[in-house]
Amino acid sequence: MTDRQTDDHLIIVDHALVRHKLTLMRSVDTAPPLFRQLLRETAALLAYEALATLPTTSVQIETPMGPAQGERLAIDPAVVSILRAGNGLLDGVLDVVPSASVGFIGMYRDHDTLEAIEYYVKLPTGLAERVTIVVDPMLATANTAIGSITRMREAGADEIRFVCLVAAPEGIERLHTAHPDVTIVTAAVDEGLNEVGYIMPGLGDAGDRIYGTV
Q1: What's the pLDDT score for residue 6?
Q2: What is each CA distance from 66 to 57, 58, 78, 109, 152, in whole angstroms?
Q3: Residue 197's pLDDT is what?
Q4: For residue 177, what are the CA distances in angstroms to 61, 165, 174, 203?
């Protein structure tokens, strides 16, 4: 079951396995190897929803029993990971659509100003013709998401879907103010941000949880 809120381009994936895996990831007792595995599995579940309306074309094929009408993707999507934490979701999305082109945007959040600072960009070609899936585990202040999506717009991306594990209401509002046509696909919308811009209750720093750093 999926709870859709299409009036403001927000999709909360309400699925028993997603809720179960997210609960395990929130736990402080979950070590990085298990956290990475759970994040990859959850990313695949979120990707099914984010990719549900990809454009397809009708094709005629032969089954072992005879001819049949089917559908294939009209064009492979692009997946853009916001480094470094986005890579925790990337493999799960590629498990679902391995033919996708992959790009990377390196941005980090200044811990004092909370502003996004760009340090690396490598994007696929032909973004204007593709659906682009952007992956980052957390949507907190949305500064990084807004900066990354603005960069993709400059490269020609038109239809963009942002996939995250957990979102804050403040981040959703700010992202939709800056880019109102971007659909957000998430496993949960949490209570809000604390005084230093972290999601509460959240799950801590996703990059640190993935890679075992502090």
Answers
A1: 47
A2: 20, 17, 34, 56, 44
A3: 87
A4: 45, 20, 5, 25
Checking if the pLDDT of 3 tops 60, the result is no
The set of catalytic residues is: 109, 113, 205, 208
Look at the pTM and tell me if it is higher than 0.85: yes
Residue 8 has pLDDT above 80, yes or no: no
From CA 105, how far away is CA 84, in angstroms rounded?
9
Say if strands 3-5 and 10-12 run parallel, antiparallel, or are unpaired.
antiparallel
Q: Phi/psi of residue 120, each to 5°? A: -160, 140
Distance separating alpha carbons of residues 111 and 39, to the nearest angstrom: 24
Among residues 61, 46, 63, the alpha carbon closest in space to that of 11 is found at 46
Which amino acid does the sequence have at 67?
A: P
Statement: residue 202 has pLDDT above 90: yes
| Crossing angle of the two packed helices 143-154 and 169-178, in degrees rounded to 10 | 20
Is the model more confident about 112 or about 134? 134
Nearby residues of 200 by Cβ (< 8 Å), 6 or more positions away: 190, 191, 192, 193, 194
Task: Judge residue 178's burial from the number of C-beta atoms within 10 Å of its C-beta, 0-12 exposed, 13-18 middle, 19 or more buried.
Answer: middle
Tell me the CATH number of domain 3-211, given options 3.40.50.2300, 3.40.50.2020, 3.40.50.450, 2.60.120.10: 3.40.50.2020
Per-residue pLDDT at 114: 66
CA distance 47 to 49: 5
